[in-house]
Amino acid sequence: MKRYRIIIGMTSGLLILTSCGQGESHRETVEKSDKKITVLDQLEQDGKIEVKDVQDIKGIRAFQFWNEYNVIVSKENKQFHSHDFGSKEVYAQNLATYNLKNKSTFILHPSSEIQHAAKLSPNGKYLFYKVAKGEK
């Protein structure tokens, strides 16, 4: 019984020591027919984020990136009649893309509906969203 506890203690200690060094880098070995390649990925320890640019866009709610320069947004579309939500008068909110470089918007599906909660599919081919219907 005493021997069993010693083995468990030594094994636990060895596991703790080997796991402590794992946080610094990730090591992966790839074996080819004539050589062995070790790939090391350095992981960030402090978790800090570097912000390069901040843009304040009035009247637009951003959901997620479409690609590197375009963001999926919801924008008020005044070409359609407004909806009555209680005492407030609300114009249709349509999904659009906002280009961060030239600051232009392109409405994806013009409609009198209020489109929101946009989600891009993992492969980037489909855009899913919810529609809120108001009183006309």
Write the layout of secondary structure elements.
Layout: H1 2-20, E1 25-31, E2 36-42, E3 60-65, E4 70-77, E5 83-85, E6 88-90, E7 92-99, E8 105-107, E9 114-120, E10 127-132
Antiparallel strand pairs: 1-2, 3-4, 4-7, 5-6, 7-8, 9-10
Overall description:
The protein is mainly β and 136 residues long. 14% of the residues lie in helices and 43% in strands. It has a four-stranded antiparallel beta sheet with strand order 3-4-7-8, with no helix packed on it. Strands 1-2 form a two-stranded antiparallel ribbon. Strands 5-6 form a two-stranded antiparallel ribbon. A hairpin with a 4-residue loop joins strand 3 (60-65) and strand 4 (70-77). The longest helix has 19 residues, at 2-20. The model has no long low-confidence stretch (mean pLDDT 77).
Name the descriptors.
136 residues; mainly beta; two-stranded antiparallel sheet; 1 helix
Overall spatial form: elongated
Q: How many alpha or pi helices?
A: 1
Strand order of the largest sheet: 3-4-7-8
Distance between the termini: 80 Å
Low-confidence stretches: none
- Helix amount: 10-25%
How large a portion of the residues is in β-strands, by DSSP E? 35-45%
Radius of gyration: 27 Å
Question: Structural class of the helix and strand makeup?
Answer: mainly beta
What order do the SSEs take from the amino end to the carboxyl end, as H and E?
HEEEEEEEEEE
Quick summary:
By secondary structure, the protein is mostly beta strands. The chain has one helix and ten strands. It has a four-stranded antiparallel sheet with strand order 3-4-7-8, with no helix packed on it. A two-stranded antiparallel sheet has the order 1-2.
